[in-house]
Design a protein that fits this description.
Elements (H helix, E strand, L loop, with lengths): L2 E8 L6 H15 L8 E8 H4 L9 H15 L6 E5 L5 H9 L5 H5 L2 H9 L6 H4 L1 H10 L3 E4 L6 H18 L7 E2 L31 H9 L16 H12 L2 H12 L5 H27 L2 H30 L3
Parallel strand pairs: 1-2, 1-4, 2-3, 4-5
């Protein structure tokens, strides 16, 4: 039996470069393993339920959800190879989440750094949905008995919760949930274009959308804060580090090393580096954008992918919930 992979991205609209490098590239790698590599059964969702744990616009949520599906398909996720679905269309996720919550303490959830960060960010939106976010994430993973989860390194605390829950459920009720591990990608943490924190849609000017054209990408890269172009050592933070990181991801380690060597010796010209980087980013995003335009013009196909994905996902999820309910004593 193939091992399973589950991953998802919140339904906040069109994906940005951080989503693509930190998650989608990993999804593609697991969907299309190299010859002789391990084969996985891959399931990729749009996490619309997770999107409502923080402030959002109900009128925009359906379109935001569809935008993620479009970006998934445009980037190369294939419904013939992977199950692509919308989280809320598989109600078993929330049912299992409630069952899993019976082995998790409130104190454990309150001490999670990610929870504390969100409460600080949204002090008036400290809801039970936000507190239960990691439990629902654990349900997303465990309901498919997934072994690998291609997500960014910032999600590791939530994966640890999923592993803890799996151990507790297995010990207390005799279930057979695996303890999921993170599938790391080269771009597991993409820094913000501002030079502070990670790339995020909640921070204006920090991200590049997968749908941005070349001029927009050039403009955003041009605004990344820099210095004189020369220093004693390569910066370990700030805008210059961001540029070097992106060069490594889009132009390769050799090109990045060359620029870093110039930085500590003769110096570099950002007027040359930045356009080269922008062109490299657009070169990779161009085919994705072309495919996306085709998908937008074929709504029936996209609707079919969403409907079929929900059916396939529910078939697996309902079986897991049934097993769990029997072990717990509800059936």
């Amino acid at each position: 039996m193939k091992k399973r992979v589950l991953s998802g991205i919140r339904a906040t609209g069109r994906l940005h470069l951080g989503n693509y490098l930190g998650a989608v590239r990993g999804m593609l790698e697991l969907q299309n393993p190299p010859t002789g590599g391990p084969n996985y059964e891959t399931l990729y969702m749009v996490a619309d339920l997770h999107a409502i744990t923080t402030p959002y616009d109900p009128k925009k949520l359906p379109q935001n959800t569809r935008e993620v599906i479009l970006d998934y398909l445009a980037a190369g996720l294939d419904p013939e190879k992977s199950i692509l679905f919308v989280q809320s269309q598989v109600p078993e996720h929330t049912e299992l989440a409630f069952l899993l919550s019976s082995v998790v303490s409130i104190a454990r959830m309150q001490h999670l750094p990610t929870y504390k960060e969100k409460v600080t960010q949204y002090p008036k939106e400290n809801t039970m949905a936000l507190l239960n976010y990691p439990i629902l994430m654990a349900s997303d993973i465990l309901i498919y008995k997934a072994d690998k989860v291609p997500v960014g390194i910032d999600q590791e605390p939530h994966l640890e919760v999923a592993r803890e829950i799996a151990r507790k459920m297995n010990s207390k009720f005799g279930t057979d949930f695996p303890e999921p591990t993170r599938f790391a990608t080269k771009g597991e943490y993409i820094p913000s274009l501002t030079g502070e924190g990670k790339m995020s849609k909640s921070i204006e000017g920090s991200y590049i959308n997968l749908t941005d054209d070349l001029n927009t990408i050039k403009d955003k890269i041009a605004r990344v804060p820099t210095d004189s172009g020369k220093g004693v050592s390569v910066p370990k933070e700030g805008g210059v580090k961001v540029l070097f990181d992106l060069i490594g991801l889009f132009l390769g380690d050799e090109r990045r090393d060359k620029y870093q060597n110039q930085y500590t010796k003769s110096g570099i010209k950002y007027s040359e580096l930045k356009p080269e980087l922008a062109e490299a980013i657009y070169k990779e995003l161009g085919p994705i954008q072309k495919r996306r335009e085709e998908l937008v013009n074929d709504p029936k196909y996209v609707d079919g992918v969403i409907l079929d994905g929900a059916k396939k996902a529910r078939k697996i999820a309902s079986r897991t919930v049934g097993e769990a309910k029997k072990k717990i004593g509800l059936l």
